[in-house]
Design brief:
The structure is a single chain. This protein has one domain. The chain is about 15% helix and about 50% strand. The protein contains 1 helix and 9 strands, in the order H-E-E-E-E-E-E-E-E-E.
Length: about 110
């Protein structure tokens, strides 16, 4: 019985990162964008999210730079993966992130399809 429990525990520990990766993707941002009050340089970012619907939180991370903002998560297929920006005050404000299976509309941005 102890051996079975040990194998089950090892399987759970090994599979945990696979489940965690389910809510993340990599995204290349080709030009500087502003997210909230943080300016992000062009780079490859790891996009991860938690929550559902209007209660989602989105984190963009690259090296030492990480920013988390509230968002609305909409499950829909997008091809290709892309972002939506709006120029305000001379900077590109990130409005939405369109990933393979979800759209992440950042707080304060218009709803998907508007």
């Amino acid at each position: 019985m102890k051996r079975f429990f040990g194998y089950a525990l090892m399987l759970a520990l090994v599979s945990a990162p696979a489940f965690a990766a389910k809510n993340s993707e990599n995204l290349d941002i080709a030009e500087a964008v502003t997210v909230g009050t943080t300016q992000l340089p062009p780079a490859s970012y790891k996009i991860s999210w938690t929550g559902t619907g209007s209660n989602a939180q989105v984190t963009l991370a690259h090296g030492n730079v990480s920013v988390t903002v509230p968002a609305k998560l909409v499950e829909q297929k997008n091809s290709p993966t892309s972002i939506l920006t709006e120029t305000k005050g001379g900077s590109n404000q990130l409005q939405a992130i369109y990933l393979n299976k979800v759209s992440l509309v950042l707080a304060g941005a218009p709803a998907v399809g508007q």
